[in-house]
Amino acid sequence: MPVRIVDRISVVEGDITQQQVDAIVNAANQTLLGGGGVDGAIHRAAGPELLEECRSLGGCRTGEAKITKGYRLPAGYIIHTVGPVWSGGLAGEDELLASCYRKSLMLAESHDMKTIAFPAISTGAYGFPLARATLIAVRTVLEFLSQSPGIEQVVFVCHGDRAFRIYNDALRTLAGKDSPSRQPEMSTSTSEDRESSGISGEIRRQVDGQLLMIESVHGIRIVNRDRLLDKIIDAARDTGHASRITAALNSWVAVNGITGDAEIPAEVIRRILARTGP
Ligand code: ADP
Questions:
Q1: CATH T-level topology, domain 8-180
Q2: Could you read off the pLDDT of 123-149 as tens digits, one per residue?
Q3: 39 catalytic, yes or no?
Q4: Of 164, 144, 154, 130, whose CA–CA distance to 22 is shortest?
């Protein structure tokens, strides 16, 4: 039976230097001579021979990738790629970030590698918003895997549980990772019913993913996201109702030309809930 593309992707929380894969990807800088964050961790774990080999590479341009051996790492190889520095989203950052994932996968494929682990490139010191970067990472990997059977497993290694949640949401939103186990929609129910039947958790995951999409599509960050999520979940009767609420919110963001860090006013939510109510 052919393996589904989505089953060739996994999300783990942990340290990328410990991954037992053919290659790990390093979020490097243009010098390739080491730095902080994941780059520093990889150089420390791989040992000083890595820096020696890196010196011979002559740096790397943003959006490109170069390969070295893994030295003392469990992984045989390291693919060094240079993510874009975030400067507001209008300087080609999205495309450059997608290029990092594509070029790294192309390099892995050309070396007959089967398994590769990625960190969340550009989302640390380079300041790329995590939700937006995650959607680009997952979408680009899905596209690549759909055209290339060689790579068997791509692992997204998340540093911390927020990243772990956002990656899983993105995978669910873009590829329906857990869709076979989804519960059927319910038309009316009490919150107790919903809690005990798992519907409440299902609505939470769905709304979380939809808020992520709104943030990503409009390039905004909803600063009162957690409170908003709770309000929508409290009000939503089922997943269909939750979708109507987030669709109305999406329209409001578009119509009002919201940008950057945005607080969704309580009054706006109140109006949306009244309008989309049962
Ligand atoms: P960049 O300069 O590309 O932003 P950073 O290393 O600063 O690179 O951060 C990239 C991402 O790597 C961040 O999300 C950070 O939390 C994560 N990270 C840092 N150390 C590790 C590690 N040991 N394993 C996996 N991810 C890590």
A1: Leucine Aminopeptidase, subunit E; domain 1 (3.40.220)
A2: 999 999 999 999 999 999 999 998 899
A3: yes
A4: 154
